[in-house]
Specification:
Elements (H helix, E strand, L loop, with lengths): L1 H23 L3 E9 L2 E2 L4 E10 L5 E8 L6 E3 L5 E7 L4 E10 L6 E13 L2 E13 L5 E5 L4 E2 L3 E10 L5 E8 L5 E3 L4 E7 L3 E11 L6 E11 L5 E13 L1 H6 L8 H26 L1
Parallel strand pairs: 2-9, 11-18
Antiparallel strand pairs: 1-3, 3-7, 4-6, 4-8, 5-7, 8-9, 10-12, 12-16, 13-15, 13-17, 14-16, 17-18
Length: 288
């Protein structure tokens, strides 16, 4: 008898739990989210659609869907951030459409937009919270230039390349390679891995080169770069970087390179030593 009572009590408890579980579950669900285009560039707009469905047995009234753009570089455009419908019958769906814009200074990235849903079921107001994601992405703008320096023919020179990200999107996995030329020899590694460059930032890559004694005063260095944006789209670009090169004599005549007087100092010292030695020898002979 006691065992039967326990079984009945357990059944009642599980029945109450099951009823509560059903009552607490949300009848309104988001079945799909679409964004057109898939990524938004800063200053551009996109259409966002949320398919909502009444997955319960009761009809729903006063259904509202709100997108919360607080602290996000996004805003509603040509529409509000709210969608509402008077009634959504059981097992029926509705499309909530929004038009949004990415602010001009929006950095590339994936942004999560909180979604607040409210509806009435059996005279009881219920709420539901969810999240959707949109991607803001702007193609990186990579500029490349050589930093100023004195490049002498026949001597080892350090060439520093400056890589500047002028775009709103970050650059990832940047690799820089210098090509071959008859005008110079690369005596360091030809390939330098940079990694990441944030928006409005730069990095440098150094290469050691020996420029040949050729009649040309300007050489062009072929440089190739590969990198990715935040969506892992790969880019490759080729540059020709002009460099002014000088002979030692030309650099000295232009005042770019100080003349070396070391050889003259050595000759003077050697001459003084010889004169002093000769003086000692002559003096010794006179004494004798």
């Amino acid at each position: 008898m006691k065992d039967k009572t326990k079984i009945v009590l357990i059944s009642i408890v599980f029945g109450i739990y099951f009823i509560l579980l059903i009552s607490l579950s949300s009848a309104l669900i988001i079945t799909s989210v679409s964004t057109s285009p898939n990524t938004i560039a800063p200053g551009e707009t996109a259409d966002v659609g949320l398919a909502i469905k009444n997955n319960g047995e009761n009809d729903l009234t006063d259904v509202s869907v709100n997108l919360d753009f607080t602290s996000l570089p996004l805003a509603p455009f040509n529409s509000g951030s709210d969608f509402s419908v008077d009634q959504l019958d059981s097992d029926k769906s509705k499309q909530a459409n929004f038009q949004i814009i990415a602010l001009n200074d929006a950095k590339s990235g994936i942004y999560k937009i909180p979604v607040h849903i409210q509806y009435t079921e059996n005279d009881m107001v219920k709420t539901k919270q969810s999240l959707i994601s949109v991607m803001v992405n702007s193609p990186p703008i990579l500029d490349l230039e050589a930093e100023d320096g004195l490049f002498l023919k026949g001597q080892n020179s350090k060439v520093t390349l400056k890589l500047i990200n002028k775009g709103l999107g970050d650059i990832k996995f940047l690799d820089v390679a210098v090509g071959n030329s008859m005008a110079y020899e690369v005596v360091s590694q030809k390939d330098v891995y940079i990694g990441d460059i944030d928006s409005n930032d730069f990095q440098t890559a150094d290469f050691n080169m020996v420029f040949m004694n050729i009649p040309l005063n300007e050489v062009s260095i072929p440089v190739s770069v590969t990198y990715k944006d935040i969506s892992n789209k790969e880019y490759s670009k080729n540059y020709d970087i002009p460099l002014r090169i000088y002979s030692l004599e030309e650099a000295q005549s232009l005042g770019l390179q100080a003349k070396s007087y070391t050889i003259y100092y050595i000759l003077i010292i050697v001459t003084l030593i010889l004169v002093f030695t000769l003086y000692k020898v002559v003096r010794r002979k006179k004494v004798e």
